[in-house]
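Human: Here is a favour to ask of a fellow structure person. Comparing notes only helps if you start from a blank page. I am asking you to supply a protein in sequence and structure-token form. Write it directly below this note and I will take it from there.

Assistant:
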Amino acid sequence: MKPIFLSILLGAVAFLQPAMMRADEASHRKAAESLLSQMNMDAVLSQTIDQTLQMQIKANPAIAPYEQEMKNFLKKYMSWAGLQEDMVKLYADAFTESELNELSKFYQTPVGKKTLQQMPVLMSKGAEIGQRRVQEHLPELQNTIAEKEKAKGGAKKP
């Protein structure tokens, strides 16, 4: 009689496991959605688009007349509406549900709120530093590429 009971129990577990996994996945996804909402990702992405565009225009003033077209393009493809599903999956894949909940708790603290407020500014300033560093050393890269082309027998200049 025990083998029959064990078979029934194993069959029930095997049958119910996909449903339990779907519930876990739904709860995990909900935790990721909640965190991203709490992080104000819609506003962060919008601000990031604006800052990135301004940085690009500053680096290349010739594109300034096309600012609105570029802004419309970026908002179409890089806005929260366009990226939400991918971002939820990204966060759900990167963090466990427990970690997502811990992050949510952190972002409710004063330091967490300040982190969220400062993150777009820090990312923008960090990107500016990186862009400036590349510009400062671009001749070195160009020379290295030119030397390689010269060694190969070509005379191309980047």
